[in-house]
Amino acid sequence: MTAVPNMEAFPRRAAPHRAVPLPRGRRRTELAMLCFAVAIMAFAYAAAGLGMSGHIPSGLVVYVFGFAVLMAGAHLTVRRFAPWADPLMLPLAALLNGLGIVMIYRLQEAGRGGNPGVVISTLTSHAALYQLMWTALGTIAFVAVLVVIREPRILQRYTYTLGTIGLILLAMPALLPSSISAVPGTGAKIQIALGGFSFQPEEFAKLGLAVFFAGYLVAKRDVLSLAGRRFLGIDLPRARDLGPILVLWVISMLVLIFESDIGTSALFFGLFVAMLYIATQRKSWLLIGVSLFVSGSLLLGAVVPHVHERFAIWLHPFAPSFIQGSSYQLVQGLEGMAFGGVLGTGLGLGQPYRTPLVQSDFIFTGFGEELGLTGLMALLLIFGLLVQRGLRAAVAVRDPFAKLLAAGLAFVIALQLFIIVGGVTQLIPLTGITTPFLSQGGSSLVATWMVIALLMRVSDTARRPAPQPIQDEGLTQVVRAG
Amino acid sequence: MNRAIRRLSVVGLAMILLLMININYLQVFRVNTLAAEPFNARIYSEQFKIWRGEIVAAGDESNGGPGMVIARSKQLKGGIFKRVYPAGRVYAPVTGYDSIYATTSPYGITGIEKSENKFLTGTAPSLAVYNLKGLFTGKPKQGASIYLTISPKAQAAAYQALATMGKPAGAVAINPRTGAILALASYPTFDPNALATQNGTKFNKVDKRIVSDPAQPLLNRAINVTFPPGSSFKLITSSTAFATGKVANQNSTIPAPRAYLLPGSHSYLYNDAGAPCGNGHPTILYALTVSCNTAFAKLGDTVGGSALYRMARAFGFNNSRLTIPLPVTASAYPKLTDPAQIAQSAIGQFNDTETPLQEAMVAATIANGGVTMRPYLVQQIKAPDQSTVQTAQPTALGTPISSSQASYLTAMMLSVTHNSGGTAYLTAGPPATSIAIAGKTGTAQNGVNNSHLDDAVFTCFAPAGNPKIAVGVIVKGGGFGADAAAPIALKIIQAYLGQQ
After folding, report:
1. Could you tell me which of B348, B89, B106 has the C-alpha nearest to residue B218?
2. pLDDT tens-place string over residues A30-89
3. Mean per-residue pLDDT over chain B, rounded
4. Model confidence over B81-118: pLDDT tens digits?
5. Cα(A453)–Cα(A143) distance, rounded to whole angstroms?
């Protein structure tokens, strides 16, 4: 703090009699940006149709109108229940979700109805409609969260309940038989598939565990930040406080072993370590966490064949022994992105259908092929903005629980993006998790909309002006009781 | 906690930045490496969408008419293109073929299709402006067309003559003034249409048949197969003799023993059928007219191996970097020190080898007053809007002999066809044609102990007074050069000059 008083900081004192201007909710900005996002979706949808068949698809009105109605509903809910929330989050989420629908529509149409390309066998002819329906469910979940959770701290009461539910959701696929939980063609056991519908519990486990971590760490952070011995200039935590991180580490390694899913285990462990760091401000936790995970994965890489292969493919995707087999998908994705180059082929004009499961884990390579480097940079900037807006809400809010929760949820978006996009672009070993908002799949979409709702709730709490104290004390009268 | 959140937000941004850097690397710098991956299905399928430019043979000079299209792309259903070669086999050694494996195998594309691929596909940097225009006008993108120097009349005559002969052979005709290639034929050859099929199974069947054919139809015998030049090499020995001053002009006499003891050995060299060569001291003109072996073997020993080597190289031998733009196999004249070998090499035996193109270049150099022009096939490259992208500029490769020395050699080659004792008198002289052809025959022994049939060689140019065409023909196992190769050369010349 400087000794010179900053006059700008105290405008109210300079003019005590003027009416206090209320901070603006900026809902009109949100509406304008939302219209822009829906317009981009509409143009992209038209471009995809024009690219494939030369004419604007007949379903354009249904999709764009449906999507616009959903987003209008979300916007109205925000106006009513979170009027002070960040105005950028909803439009950014809407833009990503809309582009995801367009890409899935484009992929579903490949090879169908005389369009060029090959039909993607893992994609039905109404996948885009389903994605729109899942968007509707996601919007409903978004609305529900905003309506039910009026204050972030309500969630704090359910710290352990939600933590238990999160753990059960996380462990469920591992305990169920493979016939129900294995994702065809990937070797990962991360879903619950019953009667044609599949549900990926980990997406919701993420939410429950984030709440749990926030509640737990707020309660224990003073103890956890106590310094133990000093080693190499870093204050190590006390040995007796290592318990929680070790438990989480064991759980994430178990997920890795029993569900064959490095991505999910990295995501949960990363979420916990990041929140632990925020709560305690001790870099030693970051160091311990990262080294535990890396050494754990390397150890498992040496023992578990599935994990070992992931490393080998990452290092040598073009090896003749991999290229027609286990690295085929990665290579197709890379070649697709190279085919797109700087400007991309244009929507509907590339060959993303050559990459297996391009609609889920590899959807980012599909965008890379058709929208090029230019489009991917835009997408990454949108994600970056979303993450920064979430972290900004975390910085602004006062309640430590809300602060931790928002920071954790915002960071997990960045982490998830890094794991999957880094994986499909050969930056890190490939592990299959969904790309937030873009990938096909209802669980991810609904869960991510809930994350956005929570971030907007925190943002609303942070930006809401404090209740105005009653100014005129002259009106107060003392009533003497007889 | 805010400080930690701010730090974490830096971590989050850094992760996104890392992704951005990696994707930039992937989509800008790794594009070419990934496109060249052998199993790249996108590149493979994309080639069918490319509207390749045409390959066009030269128009008829007399009426300046349009050229003859020898390769074009036909549009099929679904916006894909198929390559069609209307004249098939006749032009196969020139056009080559463009197969479905063009992007994935080094043998998937050959000939002009390969060497001018960037222009034909429209990806050459010099077409960027044209392509940019197309981007705004929305016209479908077509590649540039390649206009060749090939004369359809000469090419057809060359192929017909080779096919009629029915033996493995190559023939090349050049405009001696410019180096423009007028005909480039090879036999046996293949039908490029069969290899341009888009059916993978069909391609593999055709490919297997062609590759396993003992006649080796894929070999381009005009530029990629070398044969012993035989007596036609005596032109280079004569040139060396004039250039070194050992022989003054075509009327100077040189020693020609009946039997020549190869220096430093115990073996004798004889003339054909052991015949004498005049009175033993003939003029060099007479020695070439009847193609005396002893005279030129001894002359080779007189001028020496290094002088012969330099002269052969000046004519184009030992040049492994020549492209027309098809890569040309180097004709070889080895560096020799053993006098017996030098003497043999001077009459085109020992290890001398040459392509029919080299054979034509020797005649063309003499016809052009001693200046060897760089041979070339591509006259012009035009964008689809008919704007010229590139035009050939004739350039000289070298000047192995002076113009007066060239005139001595012209007189000697005219004698070969016009002296009634000349080796090509009956086949390329007045009995056969009224055109003044200046030529030299060659009959090269080959195989172990000369067990194989001799290769027939003929090199010539016409009309002798005002040379318009120089021809080199080599027929494997054709026997005497005058009998097998000269009639082929004559047919090409007649077709090109439009005379019988």
Report:
1. B89
2. 999 999 999 999 999 999 999 998 889 988 999 999 999 999 999 999 999 999 999 999
3. 87
4. 889 999 889 999 999 999 888 877 778 899 999 999 98
5. 7
Q: In sequence order, what are the residues at sequence separation of 6 or more whose Cβ sits closer than 8 angstroms to the Cβ of residue A379?
A: A96, A99, A364, A367, A371, A438
In the predicted model, is pLDDT for residue B324 greater than 60?
Answer: yes
- pLDDT at residue number A299: 84
Q: Which of B131, B127, B110 is closest to B118 using CA atoms?
A: B127
Does residue B446 register a pLDDT over 70?
A: no
CB B190 within 8 A of CB B82: no
DSSP A368-402: HHHHHHHHHHHHHHHHHHHHHHHHHHHHH---HHH
Select from A335, A384, A410 the Cβ nearest to the Cβ of B37: A335
Cβ separation of B41 and A354 shorter than 8 Å? yes
Tell me how crowded residue B64 is: count the other CB atoms within 10 A of its CB.
7
In this prediction the pTM is: 0.71
Q: How many CB atoms lie within 10 A of CB B107?
A: 13
Residue B443 pairs with which residues in a beta bridge?
B456
Query: Which residues make beta-bridge pairs with B90?
Result: none
* Structural tokens at position A33: 């940006």
**Percent of chain A that is helix, strand, coil (3-state, to 5):** 65, 5, 30
Confidence of residue A256 (pLDDT cuts 50, 70, 90): low
Mutate which of A96, A220, A273, A278 to test chain B, going by most B C-beta atoms within 10 A?
Answer: A278
Q: What is the CATH number of domain B230-377+394-497?
A: 3.40.710.10
Residue A462: CB atoms within 10 Å? 22
Q: Locate all alpha helices (DSSP H) within B84-199, ordered by sequence.
A: 92-95, 111-115, 117-120, 128-137, 152-165, 192-195
CA dihedral B362, B366, B367, B373 (to 10 degrees): 60
Catalytic residue selected from B231, B238, B291, B331: B231
Using the Cβ of A376 and the Cβ atoms of chain B, whether some distance falls under 8 Å is answered with yes
Q: What is the pLDDT of residues A266-288, one digit of tens each?
A: 888 889 889 989 988 888 878 88
Contact present, B477 and B227 (Cβ < 8 Å): no
N- to C-terminal Cα distance for chain A?
A: 54
Rounded percentage of chain A residues whose pLDDT exceeds 70? 85
* B26 contacts on A by Cβ (under 8 Å): 334, 337-338, 368, 425-426
Q: Is the pLDDT of residue B159 over 60?
A: yes
- Exposed (0-12), middle (13-18) or buried (19+): which is B275, by Cβ within 10 Å? exposed
What is the number of other CB atoms lying within 10 angstroms of the CB of residue A77? Answer: 21
Percent of chain B as helix, strand, coil, to the nearest 5:
40, 20, 40
Q: Which residue of B has its CA nearest to A353?
A: B42
Q: Domain residues of chain B, as ranges?
A: 230-377+394-497
- Check CB contact of B24 with chain A, cutoff 8 Å: yes
A154-175 burial by CB neighbour count: b if 16+ within 10 A, else e? ebbeebeebbebbeebbbbbbe
The DSSP letter of residue B331 is: P
> Measured between CB atoms, which of B4, B22, B43 is closest to A425?
B22
What average pLDDT score do residues A250-259 get?
74
Residues 6+ apart with CB under 8 A from B295: B254, B255, B256, B277, B282, B284, B287
Active-site residue flag, B9 = no
Q: Provide the pLDDT for residue B43.
A: 81
Residue B22 has pLDDT above 80, yes or no: yes
Residue where the block lists tokens 């925020």: A278
Taking residue B327's Cβ as centre, other Cβ atoms within 10 Å add up to 15
- Give alpha helix (H) positions in B25-151: 31-35, 41-46, 92-95, 111-115, 117-120, 128-137
Assembly ipTM: 0.89
**Residues 6 or more apart whose Cβ sits within 8 Å of residue A242:** A288
